[in-house]
Amino acid sequence: MPNLLNIFLKSMLVDNVVLIQFLALCPFIGMTSDTGKATGMGIATSFVMVLATAVTWPLYYFVLEPLGLKFLQTLIFILVIASLVQLVEFYLKKSAPALYSSMGVYLALITTNCAILAVTLNCISKEYNFIEAIVYALGSASGFLLSMILMSGIRSRIKIANVPNFVKGTPILFVAAGLLSLAFGGFSGLIK
Length: 192
Known about the structure:
The chain has helices spanning 2-14, 25-30, 35-64, 73-95, 97-103, 105-108, 114-125, 130-160, 170-185. It is mostly helical.
């Protein structure tokens, strides 16, 4: 059990997909202007990330590896991710139309979200068993959601702050993201 907790905390804080690995920066900057949108995007991406790991891990170990088709893993994983995003899109369109419309193009961009592909590939390269892979995906998804919510909170503070003209807009967002990344770098000694 302590190993699973280590995997979870390491993937969430120490190796955060956004703030340490610098993946999924498009939704990180594009969808964090509002906390509701950021949370919705974080949950949708997290759902796809965990489900994609649950589907791709057995697919790799029980189909691709035994048949000698490991070279197709990236292509197959992208197809699985795209299919799962379509399911999420259909679900949101029916159950939460306001969230669906507010996400706009960013919902479709979950398909090409490199963080999701990176998590599925990392589970294979780290040679995790199925339970460890799911815990790793849950930790990475939690880290993604945490970074989205933190950035949306920072952006709400930036809106009311007296920001110098030369850094208003996108530059101050990247400065804030860089400082947030440095703060997360402090977790590097948490788990070895």
